[in-house]
Design brief:
It contains 24 helices and 14 strands. It is an alpha/beta fold. The chain folds into three domains: 69 residues, no CATH class; 220 residues, Rossmann fold (3-Layer(aba) Sandwich); 135 residues, PCRA, domain 4 (Orthogonal Bundle), CATH 1.10.486. InterPro entries: P-loop_NTPase (IPR027417).
Length: 567
């Protein structure tokens, strides 16, 4: 049974594909096309007609078969094909009842798969206005919108009341009618909220100081805080979070989500929160046990992951392909191209061929020594560490001190075998989720809030270039591309803000050092000089303007600090 390829392992497949002579941009375009067609359940006979594309497709599937792997975008399609082709076996795998939440976020293939798995009743829930693209797989909101039209005897229930904080829900629905959002889908309870700028929300600090229950949606509100620059925002907001946590030390962290726009903000916020005494998890930003495999010093997490993989399953071809590619600027894709001829000539699988080649004198194919040397090193590591468990095992693979493994360390009992530990780590890599103690403060990206809610939601970095990302403004993009990117991010942004059952706080800033602005891909409106330094001026997110009727203006960061004696 083939297993799923992780994002880090995909990089090695891309290096293999480069040996076909394709330019990187063309290759990525083809892979995106394959993904979209597979997810849409379109028959390959109808779209795989170009000879060059067909050649790349055949090469990709040949390599995946040799590696005992499949791409995540293939999984649902292959499952659908199996369920349709082997109905007897398919019946054995079915469930009487299947319930799918956020059905609009699934691909067409995933939606079809879920329907085929239900033998008695299928129940779906969702909101097409909250359609979110997750893990780069194309969602299929029409599958939810037309669910009853395409099937017989479907009972439709419309939940017209939102159970989140009315003020937060009002904010989340303020942009209805903007590009791509259906204004007819509106919850009745938002009308109970104060009317925009005329109302004054109660922030979480005020709610706690007044003795109310933490997260009481009745007293919650929406606040938008404006800072001068990123340093002030990050320092000020983390200081404010510490103040709020001190008011309710037992519940605040586990009832709070901190939404960040990118990896740079996630690392910065996480570091500051830890210095302020918080226990933090960044699993909600997606854990990538990756790095740049071409340089050993830049892929320590990937190396640790592969060591654990090989200890848990020494016969995993994909793991050996990746392990033998670390430290080479081509990930040894050229050596593998020649080595496949040796494998095919002897009718051997990948691991068998590596074992045989390692026992031979000299090279069996061009640069095969690069592969066999790495293989011997891996075998020696397995022999030396196969009996280790728990913390000793984590130290042996080099995971100690790596932020990617921090949550795993916190969740360990200490006696986990390599197989048990790898199951935890691999699941984190493929399906981001929270493990370990439940009292950690959760740092997340907006799309990963699907299916979650929290009493307190904080959205940091609410500027153009982050929400929406900078390519929504780029002149080199077509109007259609800019509109699509903006609409996709609008749905994700406002869906995330609707998850607040108590208070919703958003944070923005007005300028940043130009170097940081370029590094973080902020949308720069103007550049000026301050004290000999080039400063980029940035704007609050366009989404804040779209929702301007749902909050009472901006609160200055220094004002917030003074309110709570934090200045």
């Amino acid at each position: 049974m083939p297993r799923l390829v992780t994002d880090a392992e995909r990089k090695f497949l891309l290096e293999d594909l480069k040996t076909t002579g394709l330019k990187v941009r063309a290759m990525r375009g083809m892979l995106d096309r394959f993904r979209d067609k597979w997810c849409a359940l379109e028959s390959e006979s109808t779209w795989l007609v170009d000879s060059e594309e067909a050649g790349v497709h055949a090469f990709l599937l040949e390599r995946l078969e040799a590696y005992g792997a499949m791409l995540p975008e293939e999984a649902a399609r292959l499952t659908v094909d199996f369920l349709r082709s082997d109905r007897d076996r398919g019946r054995e795998l079915r469930f009487d009842y299947v319930l799918c939440d956020d059905f609009q976020n699934m691909t067409c293939a995933e939606q079809t798969m879920c329907c085929l798995l239900a033998s008695k009743q299928m129940m779906v829930t969702g909101n097409q206005n909250q359609t979110t693209r997750i893990d780069n797989l194309p969602p299929h909101p029409r599958g939810f919108e037309d669910f009853d039209a395409l099937r017989h005897d479907v009972d439709v229930f419309t939940l017209d009341t939102a159970f989140a904080n009315p003020a937060a829900q009002r904010f989340a629905e303020a942009a209805l009618g903007e590009g791509g959002l259906d204004a007819s889908i509106r919850s009745a309870r938002t009308d109970d909220a104060p009317a925009g700028r005329a109302g004054t929300p109660v922030n979480p600090g005020e709610r706690m100081l007044k003795g109310g229950q933490s997260g009481s949606s009745q007293n919650g509100g929406v606040r938008v805080v404006s800072w001068n620059n990123p340093d002030e925002e990050l320092n000020g907001m983390t200081k404010y979070l510490r103040f709020l946590a001190n008011q309710d030390p037992e519940n605040f962290s586990k009832n709070t989500l901190v939404v960040v726009p990118n990896a740079l903000w996630a690392r910065s916020v996480g570091r500051l929160l830890r210095t302020r005494g918080f226990s933090v998890t960044t699993a909600g930003t997606g854990v990538s046990f990756g790095g740049d495999p071409r340089e050993r010093d830049r892929c320590k997490a990937l190396t640790a992951y592969l060591k654990l993989n090989l200890l848990a399953n020494p016969a995993d071809p994909m793991a050996w392909r990746c392990w033998t590619g670390i430290g080479n600027y081509l990930a040894n894709s050229d050596a593998w191209g020649s080595f496949f001829a040796f494998m095919n000539e002897h009718g051997l699988g990948l691991v068998e061929a590596l074992n045989l080649a390692s026992s031979q004198d000299g090279e069996v194919s061009l640069r095969s020594s690069a592969l066999t040397d790495a293989y011997r090193e891996g075998v020696a590591f397995i022999e030396a560490n196969s009996g280790r468990k728990g913390f000793a095992l984590m130290r042996a693979i080099g995971a100690e001190g790596l932020r990617e493994f921090a949550d795993v360390f916190d969740a360990l009992a200490g006696d986990e075998s390599a197989g048990e530990l790898f199951a935890i780590v691999r699941t984190m890599a493929l399906f981001p989720h929270f493990i370990g103690p439940s009292d950690k403060l959760r740092i997340m990206y907006a799309p990963y809030l699907c299916g979650l809610e929290a009493e307190n939601v904080f959205v940091l970095g609410a500027i153009d270039g982050f929400y929406p990302p900078r390519d929504a403004f780029e002149v080199v993009s077509t109007e259609g591309e800019r509109r699509s990117r903006t609409e996709r991010n609008r749905r994700s942004f406002f869906s995330a803000t609707s998850k607040a059952t108590g208070s919703l706080t958003l944070s923005t800033f007005s300028k940043a050092p130009l170097e940081l602005a370029e590094q973080a891909k902020m949308q720069v409106s103007r550049v000026r000089s301050e004290g000999g330094e080039r400063i980029a001026l940035v704007r609050p997110s366009m989404f804040l303007d779209e929702a301007s009727t749902a909050y009472p203006g901006f609160t200055g960061g220094q004002q917030l600090m003074m309110e709570h004696h934090l200045a």
